[in-house]
Amino acid sequence: MIPKANYHSDAIFADEMRLLFARGWQFVALTTELANDRDFVCVDHEGASTVVQNFRGEIKAFQNVCSHRFNRIQTEDRGNRLLMCGYHGWTYDKDGFPKGLPKREQFLSEDNTHLCLPHYPVETCGKFVFVDRGGGAASLREHLGDFHATLEAMSDYLGAEVQFCRVPHAANWKLLVENVLECYHCATVHRDTFVPWGVGKLPISDAVFDAGHSSAHFPRVDQPREELRQRYLSHLAERKFTHNSFFHIYIFPNLFISSSQGLSFYVGQVLPLSAERTMLRMRNFEPNVTLSDKHRARQDPINADSIATGLKLIEEDRAILENVQRGVRVSDRPGMIGDDEVRIRAFLEHYARAMAMPALQAVAAA
pTM to 2 decimals? Predict the structure, then answer.
């Protein structure tokens, strides 16, 4: 375990924002959200406001703060509009320069670089868009390592988006990460949601690790009336990804991807707001399968049920994590990591290295 203070200290949180989130590749959006001219996605967390926007087919990323008087330019999570400040109408082009500039004679000079928005490198892996706010990281392919191919494959499996929402958590961002890296808690926390689906009774399998990233399958046990269930899902038999498990991927530091038998997909994004507050941004997808009108009528209720169950799962976890956040402040014990929690151990070890913590602190709480 890491020191308990790492879950609530404002000073340590500031170091995390500087060392982990102000530099290196962070997931920001999916290419499907940025498919059209003027499409944008905003990413806000402590110390950062970033906008990623399509400029006639070119994806660019900038600091989402007007150069004039500090107004946030795009104010929605995502949408479609010019990159135009709503305060004084400064309108920025693909280079971050305010090409639309009311009373421009008052602001232009021989060197106008100070008018440009700070820009950040952007790279994509399949449908996943990443930004490096520090601008000095190795390539995205190097950052992802073995998971570059995994994300490319997952991109092909994702069908239409069926939900986009945000869920605030009164908990440290690392608690959200640790929670999704194991299913030891499933039998207790998700006994009415995950367990009836057949997950939580078997240990994880096929775990893969590369730097701070990891993936694993949470095997599923067939349930009563399984044959009937499979018949009802027969219109998805040609889906590209099949596995009798819950498959989960974590990309350090802020991206979760999961697949439920290839029948539905989830993309989660961690946005740290403070040492004890985190925003979880959620996207859900149906599988990439061509559906007839008849099959669409069958799939829509499946999507609705998947969304409702997913939200219930998140709420079950949120209640626990907020309770953990209160407990970590007062506990006299260091905490423990079990044999089934190998992905948590790998995450904390990578976190400790990235934070330049002494190796001993990575496994022993202060």
Answer: 0.94
